[in-house]
Specification:
alpha/beta; binds iron/sulfur cluster
Length: about 525
Amino acid sequence: MRAEGIGTVRRILCVFPRYTSSFGTFEYAYPLTDGVQAFMPPQGLLLIAAYLPENWPVRFIDENIRPATKEDFEWAEAVFVSGMHIQRQQMNDICRRAHAFDLTVAIGGPSVSACPDYYPSFDYLHVGELGDATNELIARLASDPSRPAQQVVLKTNDRIAMSDFPIPRYELADVKKYLLGSIQYSSGCPYQCEFCDIPGLYGRNPRLKTPQQIVAELDKLRECGMTDTIYFVDDNFIGNRKATLDLLPHLIEWQKRTGYVVRLACEATLNIAKRPEILEKMRDARFVTVFCGIETPDPDALHAMHKDHNMMVPILEGIQTINSYGMEVVSGIIMGLDTDKPGTADALLKFVDESQIPLLTINLLQALPKTPLWDRLEREGRLNDDDGRDSNVEFLMPYDEVISSWKRCMEIAYEPAKLFARYQYQCDYTYANRIKVPVAPEMKSWRNIRRALIMLRNIFWQVGVLGDYRRVFWKFAIGRLRRGDIEGFIGSATIAHHLIKFARAASGGQQNASNYSIRLREASVPAE
Ligand code: SF4
């Protein structure tokens, strides 16, 4: 479905803001690749681009790849921007630059939907999902593209069913420049973890596309050149388990038809470990990674944050179960919880060792607007937006103690020998459980071989020769290469490099302690 019946033509410039450097965007890995420059194509803007009237020309710029230029702004009649809280400063900067050309600027997406007051300079605020607000915005621009006298807030009351969503215009993004492809099957999550804004923003009853839409989107991503990993950005891939089971056979068929060229990844709650019927099909569909918000190994803390569903199976057992289906677990971890004690950091480091999870996003608790946590802390007078803080939460433990515990955890968890030992475990006990897939002719193509050679050259030179953790690296590398596991070696080595470099910057105080932190270190650096 797309907006129809608009005779007027408007040229729309969609600009996605740069990310503030964060643990989860993997930028230290990019120099080891064959030209990756950004994390994932943004679903929201590419969806809006697909929804606009067919006769409206659209230009898409991801400022993680290149900044919007004078020529882009001169071409446009209106500018659309979307992003998350962490991109707030950059979004306001895009607005300022567009206004220098007297262009109308509209903002949509998760950040403005939760906090419209973060964006006082924009002409149109699109609050909520694709729906009547989108139609109203298009109609207003069609009748008059000039800047309104004052800010107009358009709120979606009537959402368009996801089964009517058009295919995002992946062709506007240069997908080969992204680390991961992105796709979305569902929106919303049935749980209500205290710190999470998903149920408040997108609801507790997951909305769904159809499996046929997903297959068409996957085909489109492949047509656009995607050959690596495609990530389901759904808030919880098993938010509606029946829908997950409906989709998986289609993904398996699609993989068979297209030669298993891509790997799949998703986010899901840890209680997926209780669902062998889902895990089995995920293995067959070549899911290789599941991001689980484990948050903490402390049962009291999980109970306090209303995340009891993480304890439906013992946590370590759940991780091992997922690993036994060939899927590596990536874990979200939160420090600075009210339940934290002086021994929390040690308990966390023990958990890192025991779980053998290589990649854990260890963040400080941040209160996001529209969450029960925010409401509680506001009532308790424990929100603190002072400049220079790494979190807006007044912790119960002394602030400096929490920060130094976080730095210590980052430093020890990502010590190169420990990290590569965990990757070695994954090679032996997780990757070994994956289905053996035939090597598609495409994978043997010169383009693909050349790409692998470039990455091997970069890794060997930048890590194996120039890196200061060479000895640990070579021990791991020789083991993998002897087994002929080039793909596993490249994947582990590039991500490990990011984790090691980022953790060093973090423990040295040069990175945020929260991926959601509103302390925007690069805020003053314009995209140019
Ligand atoms: S399970 Fe995940 S997505 Fe769902 S409410 Fe909890 S943190 Fe949010």
